[in-house]
Structures are given as structure tokens and as C-alpha cells.
Amino acid sequence: MTLPDSSMADDATPRPRSPISSRRSGTSRRSSSRSTSPQEGSRDWLEYNTRRILSAPLTEGVDRHKVNQAMHLWASRRSTQSALTVEKILKCVETAEAEAVKNGYSKPLRVNSMMYNMAINAWAKSGDRTAPQRAEDLLQSMYERSISGRQPDVTPNTISFNSVIYAWASVRDRAGAQRAEAILERMEQLHAKENENQGNGGDVRPNRRSYSAVINAWAQAKDGTRNNAGDDQVSPAERAEQILRHMISLHKDAGRSDLSPDVFCFTNTMNAWARSTAPYKALRVEKLLHMMENTCRAGDISAKPNNYTYTAAISACAFTSPGQHSSDALRVASDLLDRIIRKDVFDCQPDSVMYAMLLKCFYQLAPNNTDIATKYNIREVLKKCCADGHFGEDIIRVIRNAFPGDENGCWKQVDIDPPRIPRALSIEDVPYEWCCNTKTKNGRKRRSDRHERRNDQDQPHPPGNWDKALGCGRPSAPSPVFTPPNIDRRHSGNPSKFDPPAHYVTPPQTKNLPASLVSDQLPTQIHIKNISP
Q1: How many CB atoms lie within 10 A of CB 222?
Q2: CB neighbours (10 Å) of residue 523?
Q3: pTM
Q4: pLDDT greater than 50 at residue 99
Q5: H or E element at residue 505
């Protein structure tokens, strides 16, 4: 047996390494692996694989997974550039498939319906002006490929049509709503063709989301705009309700169990009436609300009303123009307020938006507040709102709009004594218990320490009767805190600025002072020697 050469032995035998060098080499290997292979799903990985897809030849297997994942990640970015990138990847796969078939490759990467759906969805979410037309062009190309018979994997389905409907609904005008409805009618035709020819129409079946998207398109269309001469007499709200009733008839008469209207269909129709200029919209919304509640009581839980539903009904009353039908709007709003007080609103928890709409409704339809019933309703709304802790910024905004230029009227409306220095009512002026369930502008829950500090500073007067009735008023001090009239009350808690000297005292009652001292020119604090016996 021959032994190996010494030089060969040296090359074959691994040399021992020091721990420091081993750790350094491992660190370098890990850093190099990070630089060459970025984490899957990251932006670097997405850009790297996109360049690779657009440059390298594509085959079946792992490339299909990478192409689908890259298209999905680009589509989720919701921008025009991402939609263009997704469509570019789709065209690249189509070109690669054509070249592979021409050259006789056995397993080329083929285009399927999922890739087209991701491209259509990318345009629907991009927000671009040309997005609806680009999405519909992709759908048309998809349909032409399916009927040619050369690509059976590319067949439009319900998801394809729904994405195009969503794209047209985002236009928010009458033309977009009409185009979305036309696509829905095309879906119905293809579905009927499929039933007649046993599968030639493709996997296209309008579902609840299809009709809900079209109703939402009409709900967002501006009222008063007309494009077609034959459609002049139909407002967007009326058209939305017609589609809803057609959906109900298909569910009951044709046996389409998947077309039962849910809460979104009813609420979008009510929002369409709330945005309309029809004077009788409060009555139409009341009928839709009763229909929705009866459907829920019949056992359809998907039609259960929520906060958005009741807010839409109240908004229809609040935006009714004062006139012939204002009494009907007041009656509908009063009935809803009574149901909210009795908690007969399907376990819904009213929020500040709902209370603000109720206040706006009563202020809008009775600007002078001379009706006793209207005064009572306003009082009940404020009392219920404060008891639930939903006295937010929107409530104060509605009160300010109802009393323009009358700051004292805003303070008296909530039964809080106005300050000596006139200023606007703010959220820091009310007790924390009134607004404990509201949130600030940045979405955070309100803190109680700020309200406690502000309420301690603004305590020159005892709490009003409303605070005592609710049991959530500010604690009454044994003696009122004197705040000088020429000092801003917001900074009166700063001892470094406004603490009086030791020889100054605060008078317990101003009525015992001479008339010459009780005036607007009263000094900051009164010297004890200046008080006449």
C-alpha cells in the first residue's frame, strides 16, 4: 500500500482554525448570503425577481410560484407604477409562452386566469384615471383568448368581472355607474348562456358582491348629472333601489340563494338616498330600514343593521331641505332617537357620529328651536350622548354651527356656565366622563388627567343642574377659586407667573365691596388696606 505524498496530504487534510477566524468566516458567509439572497417578500427580493422574470427565460415549476408572488406583491402596492409592472410581467409571460411553443419546448410557463385577475385587480386598486378602461381591456383580451380555444386556462370568471366593476365604481360619477351596470348585465348574459349550452359561457355567475358593487357605484354617483336622454328621469338613488329590488326578486322568485341582500347592499342604497336631493328621501330610507329589519327578523343574519345603517338613515333626515317634507324627516329622526333611548336598534352601540347627525337634524330642520318637542329632543340627545361618553369634537362642531357667533349660547346648550373671559367651547371644557369613549384626532383614547387639570382651573362656578342629574359633574369646591379677569384661564395653574404676593388676599365675596372697586378695571388682586370698612 502506498502512502500519499506529503503535499497531497497537506492539501487533503483540513487545517485547524482558531475560534476567532471561524467566527469571522461565519459572519462573512452570513453577510454574503444576505447580500446575494434577500428575504422572500421584501422590496429587494421583489425588485430582484422582477428583473429576473423580465430578462431570463421562464419555465414551469419554481418560476410559476415566483411570478405569481411577484405579481401579487406588486398589485398590493396600489399605485399606477405597480399596475404597469404587473401588466408588463403578464405580457412577458405571454411572449415567453409563444416563443416556447414556437421552439417546441416541452414545459413552458403558460398564462392562466389567476395572472389576468391579478393584473385586473392591480389596475382596479391603482386609483389612476385610466384604470377602469385598462382593466376592462384586459378582461376583453381574456375573453377573446378563452373563446379562441387556444388557451383553455385563460377563462374569465366572477372574480375577473367583479374587479372590473370595482374599478368603474371608483370613478364616482354617473358614467362609471352605468358602465358597471353594463358589465353586470353582461355577466347575467354569460351565466344564462352557460346554463343553456352547458358550460360554453364560462365560470361567470353574478354573486352578492357583484350587485353590491353596482349599488355602491350608483350610491357614489353625483345626483343631478345626466348623460343619456332616456335616463333623465332616473336619479342615482332610484336606480340603486331598483337594482336592490331586482336582487331581492331574483333571490325569492328565481331561487338564487347567493343573492340575498346583506347589510352592505341596504346601507349603500340608504347612503344613495342620503346623498340625493329628493325632498322625500327620509320616507324612502324609513321604508328600506323597515325592510332590512324585517329581513333580519326573518332569520337572515347577514342583513342585520349596524351603526353605519342607522347613521345613513339619520343623515337622510339631517340633509333634508326645510320645506314640505321637513316634518316627515323630524318624525323619522324622533322615532330613531326614541328607539336609541329604548335600545331597540339590534344591539347597536351609538357613537359620536350618530349623535352628531341627530343634533344636526334637529338644528337643521328647526333653526329657531321654538318647538317644545324639538327642544326636548335636543336635550335628550345631549343627555344620552354625555351619559354614553361620546361627547366628541363633532358634537361641539355641530353646536357651534347652530349658534354662529354666540359663544355663551354654546356653553348654555350643554349646561355649563360660561367663563368670565369669553372664549369658544372646546373638548377640554367638558367633564372627562362625557368624552371618555371618544378618541383624539390621531386615533388615541382621551386621557383623563388633561380634563382634570382643565376642570380644576375652570371652577369659578358651581356645577349646573345637568351635571347633578347625570352624576358626572365636576366636584364642587368648598370655596370658589378666584381667577383674575385679565389673565388667561388656560395658564392660571402656573404658580411661577400668577401667584400673588404674600400681602395680597382674595376677597371672599365681591358684593361686599364698594361699587367703585367692582368694575372691569379691577386689579389682579386687591390689597387688604384698600378695602373700606
Answers
A1: 12
A2: 11
A3: 0.73
A4: yes
A5: strand 504-505
